[in-house]
Specification:
The protein is an all-alpha fold. The chain is 76% helix and 0% strand.
């Protein structure tokens, strides 16, 4: 089919475009899944490099030498990765040693459940046969798989370090490249800057509130005498990055241990305490700081979680929101003809300075809109794709605000 014939077919049949796009998406995702062991660490390095952009921008404002602006963020990320990897490794070993000790409590719980159901007329022999196949270690198999998946990703530390070094080294130059591209591709540059700015906000706010929630959860578990409270605090912190279902994943293991240790009453109060902490900090307070940084509806976030977890495993679940935001920036926000899609997948949650859609829309008329008041250089920092702030030359010529 000639170029003219293809154009006519597209204009007459939008469904054809959807089918071709869906086929391309399937091929792309299948390729990413096949190369997950390589793609995962590279994506992790990119997201982490964006996450430390405020630190790099602060060093730039202090006129730190180039090597300091590269070395300090890199050292910070390496320390974070090594510490987290060591904590996960210890947690997996502790969990494996803990589970066999609960066989007796688990069997007693099953016997009590069998007698209770039998009193309501359920066939006790069939019930005993069905429940007898249960293993207490199976209750935590998901947690073990999740932690093992993260541990395997962190084991590719050489690739992550190599990518982090390269991205931190290239970050200052990426700013200038996007500045030069802004006049000819304003929509693309605005989309990339919006993605990096919102990703930085999401990572910083989620990390801070995840740590606060984890501390309160550990205090609660210590108060109830639940084994391995630090492990469950770490799990609570990690699952804070998993949208929608992360709270349930972080709550289930300590609640089950509370049931085995102290019965239904202890499990009930652990669930109440976890729910209260989550509601106050993550449902009432955190959205006021995070605003509309995610830029997607609840349904789209849920779909992205399932999709990226299938493609990249546990690491994909943790990075589902940044990965979906990057996909949206490249395929939708960067293309003025696709702006109608934003209304279908976007969220109406406002953030300081307006919604993300409104900010991006200001730059579609041909000129890049300046960042909202109060963000100044940070709006530019996001634009490089690695979150770096403007160089000294750019700020002297145009000012930090744009």
């Amino acid at each position: 089919m000639t170029g003219w014939g293809w154009r006519m077919a597209v204009e007459r049949s939008p469904a054809l475009v959807a089918l071709v796009g869906a086929a391309a998406a399937v091929v792309t995702l299948a390729g990413l899944r096949a190369a997950a062991s390589i793609v995962g660490p590279i994506v992790l390095a990119m997201i982490l490099t964006i996450g430390v952009s405020p630190l790099r921008a602060w060093l730039t404002r202090r006129r730190a030498p180039f090597w300091v602006r590269v070395a300090v963020p890199l050292a910070t990320l390496l320390a974070l990765l090594l510490g987290l990897g060591a904590a996960i490794a210890v947690s997996v070993a502790q969990l494996a040693a803990l589970l066999p000790g609960y066989t007796r409590q688990f069997n007693e719980l099953l016997n009590s459940l069998t007698r209770m159901l039998a009193s309501y007329g359920v066939d006790e022999r069939k019930l005993s046969a069905a429940l007898g196949r249960l293993d207490p270690s199976q209750l935590f198999v998901f947690v073990q798989g999740f932690l093992n998946g993260l541990l395997s990703a962190s084991s590719a530390i050489l690739l992550v370090v190599l990518m982090l070094f390269g991205m931190c080294l290239d970050a200052p130059g990426t700013v200038g490249a996007l500045d030069r591209l802004a006049s000819s591709r304003p929509a693309l540059v605005a989309a990339l800057r919006g993605f990096a700015r919102d990703t930085t906000s999401y990572l910083v706010v989620s990390t801070v509130f995840g740590a606060i929630v984890a501390v309160f959860d550990v205090i609660v578990l210590y108060a109830f005498g639940v084994p391995l409270p630090l492990l469950w605090g770490l799990l609570s912190f990690l699952t804070n990055y998993i949208p929608n279902i992360g709270f349930v994943i972080g709550l289930a293991p300590p609640a089950v241990l509370g049931l085995l240790e102290g019965g239904l009453a202890e499990m009930f109060w652990i669930i109440v305490a976890y729910s209260l902490i989550n509601f106050v900090l993550q449902s009432l307070i955190q959205p006021k700081f995070q605003g509309g940084a995610v830029g997607m509806s609840f349904t789209m976030v849920s779909i992205s979680l399932i999709l990226w977890a299938w493609v990249l495993g546990p690491l994909g679940a943790l990075l589902a929101v940044p990965l979906s935001s990057l996909t949206r920036a490249l395929l939708i926000d960067a293309d003025p003809s696709k702006q109608w899609v934003r209304g279908l997948i976007g969220s109406e949650i406002d953030r300081p300075g307006g919604t993300r859609d409104a900010r991006l829309g200001e730059g579609r008329g041909g000129k890049h809109a300046p960042p909202p008041a109060g963000e100044g250089g940070e709006g530019r920092e996001g634009g490089e794709g690695h979150g770096e702030g403007r160089g000294e030359e750019g700020r002297e010529g145009r000012g930090e605000g744009g």
